[in-house]
Design goal:
about 160 residues; mainly alpha; two-stranded antiparallel sheet; 4 helices
Length: about 160
């Protein structure tokens, strides 16, 4: 079931790309952060076990994975528009930071589980999503390179500038 959850995300990622092309990365990221918050709430009953707990874990994992992957798409469009001539270097830096953040999140998740069990992990997820959402809503971003409309950044791709 969890493998199918990951496979379902493959179908959602192109939809996220089209939404970013139409609406821009900011609104898509907002929806993604709200999706992560919702995923934390859906995942919480997963500790109860049984069919309902399993359903909560599968649905929550699907929601979390789709939200995170769609957020990655939105962020990649945003940073690749900064310097189209340096896409390889920018993508390397972004993915390095993404993996470092994932490693830090895994470490924090293990600590949260050790201290408060599954509810602690879900609480940590909700806390981190809330912090990201607060930053997204309150901190005015510098000029968004995607704000001037679409432009081609590579074969078959369109970024917003």
């Amino acid at each position: 079931m969890f493998a199918l959850t990951g496979a379902a995300t493959l179908f959602c990622t192109p939809v996220a790309g089209r939404l970013v092309d139409r609406r821009g990365p900011g609104p898509v990221n907002l929806v993604c952060m709200l999706g992560v918050l919702l995923a934390a709430a859906v995942l919480a009953p997963g500790a109860g076990g049984g069919p309902m707990g399993l359903a909560a874990l599968v649905l929550g994992a699907l929601l979390l994975d789709v939200a995170m992957q769609a957020g990655m798409v939105a962020n990649q469009v945003r940073f690749l528009a900064l310097r189209p001539d340096a896409r390889g270097s920018l993508n390397t830096a972004y993915m390095t930071c993404a993996y470092l953040g994932g490693s830090a999140g895994s470490r924090l998740g293990v600590r949260a589980y050790g201290l408060a069990g599954w509810q602690g992990v879900c609480g940590l997820l909700a806390l981190l999503a809330t912090l990201a959402l607060a930053r997204h809503l309150r901190v005015p971003s510098r000029r968004d390179p995607c704000a001037d409309g679409p432009r081609a950044v590579g074969p078959g791709t369109v970024a917003r500038r």
